[in-house]
Write a structure and sequence with these properties.
The protein contains ten helices and 18 strands. By secondary structure, it is of the alpha+beta class.
């Protein structure tokens, strides 16, 4: 009998996924990028050379499930998409604001905190050093008049399992610690230094606990978190203007590129045979091929997205794609990029310069905006 998938709390899911992750709301319109989906694969995806696959496909989100792996607690999402015919794109685009009112802004985000585990935190038999902000904002109030101040903290994980920790305030200088119960949690969750622990106070008052596994790059080291970037209206210093995509936008409204980390050529690689090699993805190549075949034929399809897989998002908000395609990208143009800190607790920015504006694979994917900018 097939195991029934159990959806988890969306707020806990987003806290575990990280603040930079953007999941398109239900009934919103997106552009689906087959090349990006292929980068999310465990191995090479060999697209058929006989058929020309559109580089991006306009779709509506018809179903959305927030899930977590039963063994690793890694969060992922299942998104069902329905392709929208080209002759309906103008109509859909004109109604974007009506369909997505209030979808991107949550009324009030719950209080949460993430900490990257140190070697001491992850040691078997040791305790967890709780940052003061987490202890005083997320945890239940501690009675500091007691000697010593101590309480039992009860937290629920992504699967609904209850964990109990002894929270004590002690030492010289005094600090907050989780002692009894912490080692059991570390062992059962197989936590190591570099992983992150997430505590969230849900709207119903319950305390929740989640995990972010350390991202691993190709060489085994920690990978940079996913990021997005915006044009800074810089002037062209060197290089030639690339105006081709402005023409595509006028001729075909459904050929657009996203304003985000997909445009940066920092992950994955392509070759002239049309194969795309995944870097650290989670999805089987045959699942990608099945989704692409259905999408190209205009039939509903489903994709699985792992936000912590160190690969770019491949279902991108339609309005962001259109906005990016209206920019006349130039070599030498300045930009700023948002990226998460190591424990995904906040977003920082750094500046950069566009060094190249060209199609990544002009033979297999001509006119594709995927990884257009370097």
């Amino acid at each position: 009998m097939k195991e029934v998938e159990k959806s988890i709390d969306p707020q806990l899911w987003h806290a575990c996924a990280g603040s930079m992750v953007q999941i398109p709301p239900l009934n919103s319109t997106v552009f689906y990028f087959p090349q990006g989906h292929a980068e999310h694969s465990l191995g090479s995806v060999n697209f058929p050379s006989s058929s020309r696959i559109p580089p991006l496909i306009f779709c509506r989100v018809s179903s959305l499930k927030f899930l977590a792996d039963s063994e690793t607690d890694e969060v992922y999402a299942k998104i069902k998409l329905v392709p929208i015919p080209a002759n309906e794109i103008d109509f859909e685009d004109n109604n974007l604001s009506l369909n997505s009112v209030g979808s991107d802004s949550e009324s009030e985000k719950p209080a949460s905190f993430a900490k990257t585990l140190t070697q001491s935190d992850a040691n078997n038999g040791g305790g967890f050093s709780v940052p003061r902000y987490c202890a005083e904002t997320i945890f239940p109030r501690l009675d500091y008049t007691a000697d010593p101040p101590v309480q039992t903290v009860v937290a629920k994980d992504v699967h609904g399992e209850i964990w109990k920790f002894r929270h004590i305030y002690r030492g010289t200088p005094r600090r907050h610690l989780l002692t009894t119960g912490w080692s059991t949690f570390v062992n059962q969750k197989k936590l190591v230094a570099g992983d992150s622990i997430v505590f969230l106070r849900a709207q119903d008052g319950d305390l929740c606990v989640g995990i972010r596994r350390a991202k691993k790059g190709i060489g085994g080291g920690n990978e940079y978190p996913s990021s997005g970037w915006n044009s800074n209206n810089g002037s062209c210093v060197t290089g030639n203007p690339f105006g081709g995509f402005s023409c595509f936008l006028r001729e075909e409204e459904n050929k657009m590129a996203r304003n985000g980390n997909m445009n940066l050529n920092s992950y994955g690689s392509f070759n002239s045979s049309g194969n795309t090699r995944g870097n650290g993805g989670r999805v089987k190549p045959e699942m990608v091929l099945e989704a692409v075949a259905l999408a190209a034929s205009g039939k509903p399809f489903e994709v699985v997205y792992y936000p912590r897989a160190s690969t770019p998002e491949f279902c991108v908000k339609a309005s962001a794609v259109k906005a990016a395609m209206r920019v006349h990208w130039l070599c030498g143009m300045r930009f700023k990029m948002a990226f998460e800190t190591e424990d995904s607790s906040r977003i920082s920015w750094f500046m950069g310069t566009i060094s190249s504006v060209q199609v990544a694979d002009p033979i297999s994917w001509p006119n594709s905006p995927w990884r257009l900018l370097q």
